[in-house]
Structures are given as C-alpha cells and as structure tokens.
Specification:
Helix content: 25-40%
Distance between the termini: 52 Å
Structural class: alpha/beta
Largest sheet: 6 strands, mixed
Number of strands: 11
CATH superfamily: Ribonuclease Z/Hydroxyacylglutathione hydrolase-like
Order of helices and strands: HEEEEHEHHEHEEEEHEHHH
Length: 311
C-alpha cells in the first residue's frame, strides 16, 4: 500500500503537474491521480549519466503489487526505478507493461523479469521490439558505452494478440490500446478509465520537439493522435515532457503533426523541390518554443517530405 503522506503535496491539480521538475535527471516522481505516478525523465538526449533514460515511465500501485509502465533503456536503470517506487510503496513490482519499442521503453525488461515481474505487451509492439533490438543495443553502445553492460533484450513471452486488451491487475482495471502507429510501429497506450489518466508513450511529446524517423509513419501518427483524443483523458503522461491535459498535448504534438502533413502535402501538390520546402518551412513560430526545435524541426520536414513523396 502507499505509505501515508508520501508525495501528498504533489497534489492532483494541473498547475502542480506543470511545475514538476524536468530539467535534471533525478527520477522525479509526480502523483497524477490516486495511486498513479509518473516518473519524469530529462528533456536532454541520452547520456552515460542518465543511462539513456531520457523518457517518462510510470507506475500504478494496486492492492496486489505495482504495475510499472515501461522499464528503461538499460539493466543499470532498474535499481533507480526500484528506488523511486520504494519511496512511495512497499509493494513489489509485479507487472511491467511495455508501450513501445524504442530502447527506453523496454530494454530494462530483463532486470525486472529476473526479479519475478510479468512482462506484458501487445503483439504489434513485441514484433517491432524484436526487429529493432540489435540495432538499438549497438546504438546504445556507441552512445553510452559500458553503461549498457548487462542489458539483455527480453520481450513479453506471451504477447497479447488484440489491439484493445483489458487488464485486471491487482484489482485495478486498465486498457492496453493500439490506436494506430506513431513514433514507432506498434506503439501502444495504457488507459486508466476510472481516473482519466492516459500513459501515452511516444504518441505524445510535451515541452520538447517530437522526432519523425524513417520508421515513424507520420500520417499514421497524426491519425493515431486524433483517435486518442476520443478518450478525452483528464491527464496525459507523455512519452517525454511534463504531464498535462489534452489541450497541451494538442499544442505540442497534435497541431505539429497536422502542420507537418498539411504543409508538406501542399509542397508536393505544387511540385516544390525538397530544398525549397525546407527553406519555406524552416520557421514554424507556433512550435519554436519546444525544446530541440532547432536541431529536429528541419529533419522532421525532410523526413516527412520523403515519406509523403514515396506514398
């Protein structure tokens, strides 16, 4: 059970959520609803110091144990996650739910599985995890060196075949959903209908610029975001950034995806070359406040152009 008084002053008000620290990597714990917590990662990139864990995780305290939402990028981040959970509850981590296939969503699975946790993920998510595992480990080795030592890629042994699975874990009801591909193919959401909290994984970025990669189907991502809005969540724990409401998610993610697709489609319709498109769209005042705009925006336009041109 949660320890009385712990994090009580974190509160449930949105202003308190927006004030949560995100600048330094310290496994900041934010209470987002009764017995539901976000673990806030830094907005900076992966470094040896943050063990490549520059994303948000979370956990739900149930009557029979803790549900951990994503497991970090390395085995070495496992003890830090455990410490954050132990500061709130004496309950053990009994389940790990993976929402995506990027390194910091699941490469810490082995650490928790060795300690008896059950790994849970949709089949779609697991398929992408298995496809990208070796390349992600190689990239982490280049990025954080020996901080990746001891990390073994382990996926859920019995992935769930459906796209909308209801989970009853420790007497708490939640839904693991795939509403369409997003930052990676097979990205999923964890929806807690009773509290109105949505763990969005990398479907939603707040406070920082999202990244469109070659394997980020940008039109699908846009459509998945729109499908997500039908849930009408009260609070969204994004893949990166401070938890916030749906309006903030729209401003920082949904509106940007709409803008990218709309503007690049117009370029292609007018036979505008890619270099001219990059110059025309270099400024995007509505989104320039987002962290990493300067380094990611032009790449996003470039990748969107290549994707939509190919399609």
């Amino acid at each position: 059970m949660p320890r009385p008084g712990r994090l009580a002053r974190a509160g449930l008000a949105l202003l308190a959520l927006l004030a949560a620290p995100v600048g330094a990597w310290e496994m900041a714990t934010v209470l987002v609803a009764e017995r539901v917590y976000a673990l806030i990662g830094p907005l900076e990139g992966r470094t040896p110091e943050n063990l490549a864990l520059n994303a948000n995780l979370g956990f739900i305290v149930t009557d029979a144990g803790v549900v951990l939402v994503d497991s970090g990028a390395t085995a070495k981040s496992g003890p830090l996650i455990e410490q954050a959970v132990a500061a709130v509850t004496d309950q053990p981590i009994r389940w790990v739910v993976n929402l995506g296939s990027q390194d910091h969503r699941w490469l810490g699975n082995g650490y928790f599985a060795e300690r008896g946790a059950r790994l849970i993920a949709l089949r779609r998510t697991v398929e992408t995890q298995r496809t990208l595992a070796e390349s992600h480990l190689a990239w982490l080795r280049e990025t954080i060196s020996d901080a990746v030592d001891g990390t073994v890629p382990m996926t859920a042994p019995e992935p769930l075949a459906g796209d909308r699975e209801t989970l009853e874990l420790g007497g708490t009801r939640m839904e693991l959903l795939w509403l369409g591909d997003a930052h990676y193919r097979g990205d999923a959401l964890l929806w807690l209908p009773e509290s109105g909290v949505l763990f969005s994984g990398d479907l939603v970025f707040m406070d920082r610029m999202l990244g469109v990669w070659p394997y980020s189907p940008v039109r699908d991502w846009r459509d998945s975001f729109q499908a997500m809005t039908a849930l009408a969540p009260k609070i969204i724990v994004p893949g990166h950034g401070t938890p916030g409401d749906l309006a903030k998610a729209r401003r920082d993610t949904g509106d940007y995806l709409d803008w990218l697709v709309r503007e690049v489609e117009a370029s292609l319709a007018n036979w505008e070359p890619i270099d001219e498109t990059l110059e025309r769209l270099a400024r995007a005042p509505a989104f320039e406040h987002l962290e990493h705009f300067a380094s990611w925006h032009r790449r996003n336009v470039h990748q969107t152009y290549l994707q939509l041109e190919a399609n």
